[in-house]
Amino acid sequence: MSSNQSILELSSITKKFPGVLALDQVDFNLKEGEVHALVGENGAGKSTLIKIISGVHKKDGGEIKFKGQSVDIKGPKHSRKLGISVIYQEFNLVPYLSISENIFLGREDMKGQTIIDKKEMYQKSKKILQDLGIDIDPNTQIADLGVAMQQMVEIAKAISMDSDIIIMDEPTAALGDNEIEELFKTIDNLKEKGISVIYISHRLKELWQVADRVTVFRDGQYIATHPISETDKDLLITEMVGRELKEQFPERDAEIGEEILAVENLNRGDLLKDISFSLKKGEVLGFAGLVGSGRTELMRCIFGADKMDSGKILIDQKEAKIENPRSAIESGIGFITEDRKKQGLVLVRSVKENISLTDLSQVMNGMILKDDKDKKLAQEYIEKLNIKTPGEEQEVQFLSGGNQQKVVLAKWLIRNTKILIFDEPTRGIDVGAKKEVYSLINQLAEEGVGIIMVSSELPEILGMSDRIIVMNHGEIAGQMDIEDANQENILSLATRE
Amino acid sequence: MNIIKKLKDSLGKELGALTGLILLGAIMTFATPYFLTLTNLMNILRQSSLIAIAAAGMTFVIITGGIDLSVGSVLSLSSCLTAGMMVSLGWNVWLAVFLGLIAGGILGIVNGVLITRVPLPPFISTLGMMGVARGLSFVYTDGAPIYGLPESFKYLGAGMIGPIPFPAILMVIIYLISYFLLNKTKVGRYAYALGGNEEAAILSGINTKKYKTIVYALTGLFASISGMILSARLDAATSVAGDGFELDVIAAVVIGGTSLSGGRGKIIGSLIGALIMGVVRNGLNLLLVSSHWQRVILGLIILLAVTVDVVRKQSSEDQDGTLSSFFAGLKS
């Protein structure tokens, strides 16, 4: 139950990284038994604050009071000992150990000196899980559990450590609707026990279901704290971006021209069955569907990253021989992959080197790379796309998600690509950067580029597309113009068995 | 002008290794009066050039995230082939050298093809090549050294230009070429890219198979250049030459700060790394330290260099800690 007693008080916390002031004298106050949401765009300083509380980073200034006492958190172990647990997006579970072995990993109950007391651990785990309202055998292997259940194990682990504070980083990102309901019930349950929760999420809507209060950060600064009942989504967004966001999806004034791409009877194993569609100049073609419906697989085939078994691809009404990404790129196709860290960027190299990677000839004289040309090209796109980086020599891994995505975009823009495939273009990036990506898509369409946009966010599909194709089990389940589309008919096509 | 500035920049980043080299030099100077003499320094350069030249190629391979264990065997096979062509067949010296180098390059290409087309992990493919090339070298020479190499060939190993040994000059030329390739051409840029993230490189339209193969070919070529120098200096080509050479070469690259996980590294670092190994060996010889203890000490230096690298990487990853600001301070 929420009381007025503060369990954790942070005041004037400052954290500097080389060249960046990540946190600038921020305050944060957590009460006993409350769920306190922390929101802000990527790069606002949420993760840094969490890492300071959990002892991963050391603060450069300010004070932390835990249960009224001033503390100097020395490291992750110290933080855990105080009673602070963090559940990251990537779980820290060992897949081939059981639930109870994971819960007590490193803190096993012992019979004497050397023998692990499995029975005791089993009983304790069972009790904790029951308290959470979960009916599962603690001997089950983690590898056999779904994401939602793994998350519950993480929560059980936190409870087993007698945590007073549990920090959850994007806990709903990988969950389905039903599972989210379950999670919220569990969080209510934690509150009943007097446990405080710091809740980080990009999904603002759910805050009204789960949080008591919300604190907004922007650019490393504390902006405001509100009781959740006294605020609304628009106010939060305004505070997060520091400006009004009236139109989430900007207007587009593109002329739809001739057919630029056609796919005919494309097949690949069981994954893609007899796919045919076309794309016109200046058109934004949305691909909706459930995860695993074959959208990414289709795009990889069109881009030559995977081989198709049969079918034809026509570019400008002429058959294009696409054997690998290189030939696709030479035919004028660009592909912005869904996983920018694994597929889009060379994280350990600079912004400059990443941008010119798709077309080095632009920065070469004959056989020789010209550094001045390379720099100039990078600077041009840093400015054009408003990429926030200390300079073109900065390694991409140190940029925020939204800025990394802009570097990926720049890679394709330097080539004057005719057909651009966006796979989940705004995944994991913040509201402000999203809008910039949308504007850019519009601008490209206005310039006559044909755009395919794969997205799992229906508002995005509906807000951006001229035409929508819905995929289901590797087939095209339906096509519709934007005028005829709504959430209901897309979903019914996407989920039809 | 730009190249000079660039050289300065890259030197700045390898300052740790360079400081180590200078420190070692200073210690040796105090420890023995024989160290800081022109003859001895030139001797070090001559000795270091073997490892340094092969390390230039190895730097490319390691930047792509690969490894080449076959350099010692390639060194032996190519030098035996050249010696055989000169001595047994009586062919023109430079034709024989040229064909020997080509042979080294081809062995590298075979490595590259196995790695990119089969595909085999670099460790396995070059381990196999290490055995095959060494074995062929024994087969070709029947295990007997080939003596009596032509005078003009011996210049490669023993020649002097003024006070400077010819191999040292060759080494400098190889490093200038490597610097150029790594920083000013597609080969280098793509090596960094595919070493940093191969999937992203492929999806950016880079023919990663081609560039990987080039990189292994280059390493084979450079290893056979070391082979020519070695046999010229010893006045003999033998099938046992360069046994364990690959480890020295890899050590030089690693001491020079190139990351074994790929995507990072500087050519100048490998030169410094090879010189560090040369100075240590030479100094310990002068101090009459037994070759057994020398192995121990070189091993410790490798561990120290990698430890520094790992610590530096960790502290730069969380962008925290005093070490990274220490290095940042050094850089500026």
Task: Describe the model.
The complex is a heterodimer of chains A (497) and B (332). In chain A, 32% of the residues lie in helices and 27% in strands. Chain A contains 17 helices and 24 strands. Chain A is globular. In chain A, the strands form six sheets. In chain A, strands 6-9-10-3-11-12 form a six-stranded mixed beta sheet, with helices on both faces. Chain A has a six-stranded mixed beta sheet with strand order 18-21-22-15-23-24, with helices on both faces. In chain A, strand 19 (364-365) and strand 20 (368-369) form a beta hairpin. Chain A is of the alpha/beta class. Chain A has two domains: 6-241, P-loop containing nucleotide triphosphate hydrolases (Rossmann fold, 3-Layer(aba) Sandwich), CATH 3.40.50.300; 259-495, P-loop containing nucleotide triphosphate hydrolases (Rossmann fold), CATH 3.40.50. The longest helix of chain A has 16 residues, at 177-192. In chain A, helix 4 crosses helix 5. By secondary structure, chain B is mostly helical. Chain B has a domain at 50-265. Chain B contains 15 helices and four strands. A two-stranded antiparallel sheet of chain B has the order 1-4. In chain B, helix 3 (38-63) runs antiparallel to helix 11 (208-234), helix 5 (93-117) runs antiparallel to helix 11 (208-234) and helix 12 runs parallel beside helix 14. The radius of gyration of chain B is 20 Å and the shape is globular. The model of chain B is unreliable at 317-332 (pLDDT under 50). The A-B interface holds A 17-18, 56-58, 303, 305, 324-326, 328-330, 335, 337, 342-349, 353, 357-358, 360, 364, 367-369, 371-372, 398, 411 and B 2, 6, 183-186, 189, 192-193, 196-197, 199-207, 263-264, 318-320, 324-325, 328.
Secondary-structure arrangement, i.e. CATH architecture of the largest domain in chain A: 3-Layer(aba) Sandwich
Strand order of the largest sheet of chain A: 6-9-10-3-11-12
Beta-strand content bin of chain A: 25-35%
> What is the end-to-end distance of chain B?
20 Å
Major sheet details of chain B: 2 strands, antiparallel
The geometry of chain A reads as globular
**Secondary structure: helix percent of chain A:** 25-40%
Transmembrane segments (chain B): 15-38, 50-71, 91-115, 122-140, 160-182, 214-234, 267-287, 293-311
Subcellular location (chain B): Cell membrane
GO molecular function (chain B): transmembrane transporter activity
Protein name (chain B): Ribose transport system permease protein
